[in-house]
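Example for tutorial group B:
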């Protein structure tokens, strides 16, 4: 059974982030500045031993690889950032990983194919880095960049085809033409093809989606099951209950949109930032999503189950954050154990995707912290062992 953890590379400085967010910005900047919003709120998230690492240090990546292997994590799924005209961001850690064969943990790539906006300060309409619109020349340039990764012996493959995940296929113009072209290029370059997968819950929910070019559909948690839960909840409610439910979900969004528009207008007209603070947190129960997740019926034979350690993006969103409260290492172990079993028996697959290895600013991390130490990693090891899948890396 392959436990594959999504991996964020934004733990080193890049010129663009220094320009947009201030000198020295990394994901740790957001993580450190988080404040608790209510009594008992677990913020800020602090790495064990104050290990605020720099991912450009190969010793850090070696530590991560050794840690993952020790506790049964099969591989990393690195987020990959490719934008208009072939612009790359946060690519150095992944390129270093490719070059350093001592980093012997399997890996794959997930194209986080959204434009970068100023979402962290409320200016969501301001685009910092636009996505590509889709020209054949750009497709070929992108494929040629990916090819050395696909050919690497550590790259995760299915039936000898490298897995490539796309976060939001629905926003790529001519997606089918692009994927067909990449399949052609893959075979031309000695590969059997590419195993395309998609991650976004938004694409899962499209009624008229064409996923014919995709072999895998990852249930990205917590949002895949949270949407499934809300769909089920809405269909089971009376008209009155549905009205109350819809209003309760839409009012925070309405407030948020009004606030963002006011902020943008003030920025443009007055040349200064005026922040309007509305407390519009989405606070949900971890157990609600878990209970939905472990009862999901696969939408197709392409589906792959996912799990999430925890979720709390207060470090990024402050008063507009989304929280799923109640996660513990024990509950996560039970959750992962159930999904390991269901992956084999219900989904007919041999993998589970975990959100995440190191999403510290979103409260989703297997890496050890000051509150729980190594307990979430221990949970992975024990969940695998309970299902007869743990193999000690030292043997």
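The residue assignment follows.
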């Amino acid at each position: 059974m392959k436990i594959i953890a999504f991996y964020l590379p934004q733990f080193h400085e890049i010129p663009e982030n220094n320009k947009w967010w201030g000198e020295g910005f990394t994901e740790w900047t957001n993580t450190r500045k988080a404040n608790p919003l209510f009594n008992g709120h677990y913020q800020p998230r602090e790495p064990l031993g104050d290990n605020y690492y720099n991912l450009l240090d190969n010793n850090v990546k070696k530590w991560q690889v050794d840690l993952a292997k020790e506790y049964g994590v099969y591989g990393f799924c690195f987020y990959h950032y490719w934008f208009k005209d072939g612009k790359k961001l946060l690519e150095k850690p992944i390129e270093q990983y490719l070059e350093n064969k001592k980093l012997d943990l399997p890996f794959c790539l997930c194209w986080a194919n959204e434009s970068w906006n100023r979402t962290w300060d409320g200016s969501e309409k301001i685009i910092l880095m636009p996505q590509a619109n889709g020209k054949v020349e750009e497709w070929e340039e992108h494929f040629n960049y990916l090819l050395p990764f696909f050919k690497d012996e550590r790259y995760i493959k299915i039936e000898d085809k490298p897995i490539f995940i796309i976060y939001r296929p629905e926003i790529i113009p001519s997606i089918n033409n692009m994927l067909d072209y990449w399949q052609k290029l893959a075979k031309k370059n000695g590969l059997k093809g590419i195993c395309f997968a998609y991650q976004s819950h938004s694409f899962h929910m499209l009624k008229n989606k064409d996923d014919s070019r995709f072999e895998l559909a990852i249930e990205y948690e917590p949002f895949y099951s949270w949407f499934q839960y809300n769909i089920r909840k809405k269909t089971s409610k009376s008209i009155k209950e549905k009205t109350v439910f819809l209003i309760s979900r839409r009012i925070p969004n309405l407030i948020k949109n009004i606030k963002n528009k006011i902020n943008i207008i003030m920025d443009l007209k007055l040349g200064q930032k005026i922040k309007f603070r509305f407390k519009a947190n989405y606070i949900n129960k971890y157990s609600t999503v878990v209970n939905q997740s472990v009862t999901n019926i696969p939408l197709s034979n392409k589906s792959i189950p996912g799990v999430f350690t925890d979720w709390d993006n207060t470090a990024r969103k402050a008063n507009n954050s989304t929280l799923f409260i109640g996660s513990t290492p024990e509950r996560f172990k039970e959750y992962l154990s159930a999904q390991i079993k269901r992956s084999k028996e219900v989904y007919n697959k041999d993998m589970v995707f975990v959100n995440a290895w190191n999403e510290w600013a979103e409260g989703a991390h297997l890496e050890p912290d000051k509150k729980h130490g190594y307990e979430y990693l221990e949970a992975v090891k024990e969940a695998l062992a309970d299902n007869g899948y743990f193999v000690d890396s030292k043997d």
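The radius of gyration is 21 Å. Compare this with the pattern of hydrophobic and polar residues in the output above.
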